C-alpha cells in the first residue's frame, strides 16, 4: 500500500514503510557491515573467554554475560538489514516483529545492567576500599547472572502482550484521549533503563576519578591509564545509548503533536542513531581489555602474530603488582579497580 502523506490522520499512513528509501538502504549496508565485523569478533571473544581465559575461574562472569548479550544483538542485524533494504522499518510478520523487538530490548537491558554492575564494583573497590563490597561477592556467583537475566525478561512483556502497528504505535491511536498502557509502559522502560543507569554511571565515574587524582602513590602515567579504565564504560554508554534516547524523545514529541513532516525526519534520525548504537557489539571487547588485562593477554596470544604480541602485552592499562596467570601462561598485572 503506498504512503498517503496527504491524509490528515495518522491512521491512514503506512508507518511500516520507510520515509526515505535511500536512507534506509544505506543503513541496511551499515548494519551488514556491523554484522560482518561483529560476528567473527564476538566469536573470537567467546572462544577466548571459554577455552583460553576460562572466565569462571577468573571472576569474569559478568563480562561473559555482556558477550552473550552482544550475540543477541548480532543475531538481529541481518533481519533488520533485510527489512530496511526492502523499504520496511519493521517486519510485517507480527511474530517476527515481536521477537526482534524483544531480543533488542533484552540485549540493551543486559548490556546496561552488567556494565553498570561492573562500574559499581569498581566504585566500591576504589572509593570505599577496605569496606565490604557486596558486588564483588555477587559477581563470583553464576546464579546472580541468571537472576539478572530473569529480572530483565519482564521488560520484554510490553513487546509481546498485544499486536501493535508495526511494533511501534505509541501516540498513534488518535481516537482515544489516553495512551495505551502497554505502549506507554514500553516507552517508560526504554527511557528508564538508560537514564537511571547513566546517572549512576556518571556518579561512580566522577567519584572514582576524584579518588584516583588524590592518590599520591604511583606514577602519574599509571594513574592516567587507570582513569581511562573507568572512563571506557562511559564512552561506550554515551556513544551507543544516549544519542538514540534523545532522538526517541524528539520523535515521540513530534508524533504526539501530530506533526507528520517533522516526524518523518525524526524517524530517520532515530533509526540512524539506533544503527549507530549497534556498534556496542564492536566496542564491548575494548571494555573487556580495559577491565581485565588477563583477558587482553589471552586474546593477544591467541590471535595476534608473535611479532607484535610482546608490544601489545607490554602496553598494559593497569596498576598494581598482583600477578594472575592466564591459561597461556602470560603474566597479568591487576589493581583494585580492575576486574581480576
From TrEMBL:
Origin superkingdom: Eukaryota
GO molecular function terms listed in the Swiss-Prot or TrEMBL record: G protein-coupled receptor activity
Main location: membrane
Residue ranges crossing the lipid bilayer per the database entry: 27-50, 62-84, 104-124, 144-164, 184-206, 227-251
InterPro entries named in the record: GPCR_Rhodpsn (IPR000276), GPCR_Rhodpsn_7TM (IPR017452), HCARs (IPR051893)
GO cellular component terms, A-Z: membrane
Membrane topology: Multi-pass membrane protein
Coiled-coil parts of chain: none
Entries under PANTHER family matching the protein: 12-(S)-HYDROXY-5,8,10,14-EICOSATETRAENOIC ACID RECEPTOR, HYDROXYCARBOXYLIC ACID RECEPTOR 2
Protein name in UniProt: -(S)-hydroxy-5,8,10,14-eicosatetraenoic acid receptor-like
Species whose genome carries this gene: Xyrichtys novacula (Pearly razorfish)
Family: Belongs to the G-protein coupled receptor 1 family.
Matches recorded under Gene3D superfamilies: Rhodopsin 7-helix transmembrane proteins
Protein keywords: G-protein coupled receptor, Membrane, Receptor, Transducer, Transmembrane, Transmembrane helix
Entry's localization field: Membrane
Signal peptide: none
Start and end residues of each G-protein coupled receptors family 1 profile domain: 41-288
Alphabetical list of PROSITE patterns matching this protein: G_PROTEIN_RECEP_F1_1, G_PROTEIN_RECEP_F1_2
